[in-house]
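Sequence design from tokenized structure. All designs in this work follow the same two-part layout: the structure record, then the generated sequence. An example of the structure record is given first.
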């Protein structure tokens, strides 16, 4: 009887751990608690800091990544994926030729002394062109 009681105690704990793992992943399998989000452009789970950080225009020296926007680019540079703070939705901006801005509806990413992000006529974010190291769903840096 002692063994049966021990089994009963262990099973609910194991099930609850599995439920916790499942709840922490988004619909694409990205582990949100580890900082991963789905990239439509890369078609994989990524960490935001692996892209270009754009700080709010009123906080250019911002160190709080939770209020920054991030940009990731396609390999050929024709598309830019915009990740906004406090949003799980991303936006794919496109440009026709090198040197032009990436655009989607009212969003415009302008390559100027790094990057400037505008919504309509209002500049919201700006940042240099430093791109972080690419980190995929396994936390192993890609070289």
């Amino acid at each position: 009887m002692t063994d049966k009681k021990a089994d009963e105690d262990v099973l609910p704990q194991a099930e609850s751990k599995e439920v916790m793992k499942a709840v922490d992943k988004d619909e694409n399998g990205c582990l949100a608690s580890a900082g991963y989000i789905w990239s439509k452009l890369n078609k994989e789970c990524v960490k935001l800091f692996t892209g270009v950080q754009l700080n709010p225009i009123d906080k250019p020296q911002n160190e709080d990544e939770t209020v920054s926007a991030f940009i990731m680019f396609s390999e050929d540079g024709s598309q830019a994926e915009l990740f906004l703070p406090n949003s799980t939705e991303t936006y794919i901006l496109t440009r026709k030729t090198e040197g032009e801005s990436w655009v989607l509806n009212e969003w415009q990413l302008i390559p100027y002394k790094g990057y400037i992000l505008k919504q309509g006529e209002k500049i919201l974010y700006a940042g240099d062109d430093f791109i972080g190291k690419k980190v995929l769903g396994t936390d192993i840096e890609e070289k």
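The longest helix spans residues 2-24. We note this feature because it recurs in several other targets discussed in the main text.
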